[in-house]
Design brief:
Elements (H helix, E strand, L loop, with lengths): L2 H20 L7 H27 L3 H30 L4 H8 L3 H9 L1 H18 L5 H18 L4 H24 L18
Length: about 200
């Protein structure tokens, strides 16, 4: 039962992320999009916590080490969302925002430039591990790895149509994972097995 809220978060998070991209204005999130992106980071963190707890039962080292990296990636999503929010609220352009960050290289690295890449890295790692240990269908792992590859290609140059593709690639597998946690107690048995296996027991 306690897995169900985590499953719901894995569906809500990519929906919020996709909606925030839809609200882009000239490649910037703005107040509305930034708010939704920041909120998505909260749901990503909650969903990842349940997902990595489940993975820990099958791959202890990855379930343990991967969660802090994932949470830092979520922090990056929140930070970029708030950056977009304050850019519009304070009437600061994108170039002005980047110029201001250049005056604070250490803190900008800690808040934005390091946590940001950890999100797609987390998604790629999840895709690889879930497919490797057969905790999800192969297509789920493949889409996660593809989404992790496309994600930075859209967010760094801020190309809207590529960002939309990345959002769909994120939504589909995470919706499957979220639905699985909503219906079951965990990922175990997520991949259909041969009906004959264990029939003799």
């Amino acid at each position: 039962m306690y897995r169900k809220p985590h499953g719901a978060s894995l569906i809500i998070a990519p929906l919020l992320c996709a909606t925030s991209t839809f609200l882009w204005t000239e490649g910037r999130y703005g107040a509305a999009g930034g708010t939704l992106l920041a909120l998505s980071g909260v749901f990503w963190a909650h969903g990842f916590t349940g997902l990595f707890e489940d993975i820990r039962r099958h791959v202890p080292w990855y379930g343990t080490a991967g969660l802090p990296v994932a949470l830092l990636g979520c922090f990056g999503a929140i930070a970029f969302g708030l950056q977009g929010f304050f850019e519009e609220v304070l009437a600061v352009s994108g170039p002005q925002s980047l110029a201001a960050l250049a005056h604070h290289p250490v803190t900008a690295t800690l808040v934005l430039w390091t946590p940001g890449p950890l999100f797609p890295l987390t998604v790629f790692g999840l895709g690889a591990v879930l497919a490797w240990r057969r905790l999800a269908p192969t297509w789920v792992g493949a889409l996660l790895c593809l989404a992790a590859t496309v994600f930075p290609m859209s967010r760094i140059p801020r190309i809207e149509w590529i960002a939309s593709v990345a959002d769909v690639l994120l939504l589909v597998p995470f919706a499957w994972l979220g639905w699985t946690l909503l219906r079951r107690s965990g990922l175990e048995g997520g991949v259909p097995r041969d009906p004959g296996v264990g029939a003799e027991r």
